[in-house]
Each structure stands twice: as C-alpha cells, then as structure tokens.
Write a structure and sequence with these properties.
By secondary structure, the chain is mainly α. The chain has 10 helices and 4 strands.
Length: about 240
C-alpha cells in the first residue's frame, strides 16, 4: 500500500473536542474515529507535524496517542519510517468476525423484553439505503459500521461499546482494501432492514438467527475477497 504522508486530514474541525483537557486518550479517540470513517486508509503514513498542528497538541501527546492505537492494532510503528495505519492480514479478518459473532449475537440474545430502543438502528438502516440510492458506496460502508455499532449499543454497556469500537475500526481497515465496495456491501442492506424489522416485531430469537447467518456470510465473503487482495487464503478456513 502507499505511504503518502497524511497531514491534518480535516482534523482541525475536531480541535474543539479537546477543550481544556487535551489528553492522549482524547486524541486517540479522534484518530480512531477518523480511521473508522475512512479518512486514513490502510498503509497511510501519519504525519506528526500535520496531525499535531491540526489538533494543537504536543508531539509527546500525539506519540502517546499513536502508542495507544498501536496497542489496539490500528497503527503500526516501522523503525526509521514512522507510524502507519495497519494493513490487516487475512487471519485478522477471520478473528474480527469471530469476535463480532460472539459479541453481537450475545447482545441480541440478552435484550430482554420488547419494545427495544431502535431509533439509532433505524437511522443507520436509513443512512445505508440513502447512500445506495445516491451511489455512495463508501457512505454505505460507513452506515454498515454504524448499524453494528448501534446494535451493540442496545446492550447499554460502556465496556461492550468500547470493545466493539476498536473491533469495528479494525473491520473498516479491511473494507478499505476492497476495490468493489458495492459488491461487498449491497447484499447486506436488505439484511440490515430485516434484522431491524424483526427486532421491531419483538422477536429477538429470530433476529439473533438472522444476525448469525449474516455474520457467517459476511466473514466468508470478505475473507474470500481479502485473501485474493493480500494473499494468505489458508486463513479463510480457520
């Protein structure tokens, strides 16, 4: 992948989020979101000067934020070259889907009695359908991430939200490697709608079944595409 330096990447508008309590954790949260939303694709070299200047933070604070995101497997430090957005291996994609299935299905299974608070999930479905109508397949990809984030948020658990925020950010790294996002994401628009409608009907058992099939199919499809792009197809059978 390319190693073109990424400067501010539109981060100046996020500077206000830091307020008076600028910390490495807050910087890391901003960068994590930017990675998840696709502003910094895999293989991108992150410029300390550009990002630090855009956010108005010190070099030490930024380096600590980089360290945190390296620990989360979103960045990688290459000696004498700098910090780069990580390019996933096929085995990473397999493991991401394994984690998603464990967490997302458990969230749906444990929802309790209906009605469920589905406004966020409904908005994500509408966002994806709107993106498809407009031919904005990057937007559809983002909406799909939002759908799964809102699904997990139904658990009402900050810990689960934090776990899945990192997992979904990693997943987005895989999405960015795909050269035909429409073929990857379009089949799941109707499936997102079906899961939403099933939850609206109060049937969490059927929703969990639909979700499990969805995630299994997604894993197979993405791993197959990804293995052709980066090699390592043996991991698809893991």
């Amino acid at each position: 992948m390319g190693t073109t330096g990424a400067g501010g990447g539109g981060l100046a508008e996020d500077r206000a989020l830091l307020g008076r309590t600028s910390t490495a954790e807050r910087v890391a949260d901003i960068l994590r979101t930017r990675i998840a939303e696709g502003f910094f694709p895999p293989g991108t070299r992150l410029s300390e000067d550009g990002i630090g200047g855009a956010l108005g933070v010190s070099r030490n604070t930024l380096r600590e934020a980089f360290r945190l995101l390296t620990h989360e497997r979103l960045l990688v430090h290459e000696l004498n070259r700098g910090v780069f957005v990580r390019v996933l291996a096929v085995a990473d994609v397999v493991d991401i889907h394994r984690t998603r299935r464990l967490v997302e299905c458990a969230v749906v299974r444990g929802l309790g009695e209906p009605p469920f608070a589905l406004d966020g999930l409904s908005a994500a479905v509408a966002e994806g359908e709107r993106g498809a109508r407009e031919g904005d397949w990057k937007g559809v990809s983002t909406a799909n991430i939002h759908f799964h984030r809102e699904l997990v948020a139904l658990a009402g658990s900050d810990r689960t939200d934090e776990l899945m925020r990192g997992v979904l950010a990693e997943l987005r790294l895989a999405f960015h490697m795909v050269d035909d996002p429409r073929a990857l994401h379009e089949p799941y628009l109707a499936r997102n709608r079906a899961i939403l409608d099933t939850l609206r009907a109060g049937d969490r058992t059927e929703a969990e079944r639909l979700l499990a099939e969805y995630l299994d199919d997604s894993r197979t499809r993405l791993v197959d595409v990804y293995a052709r792009l980066v090699g390592g197809g043996d991991a698809a059978a893991s």
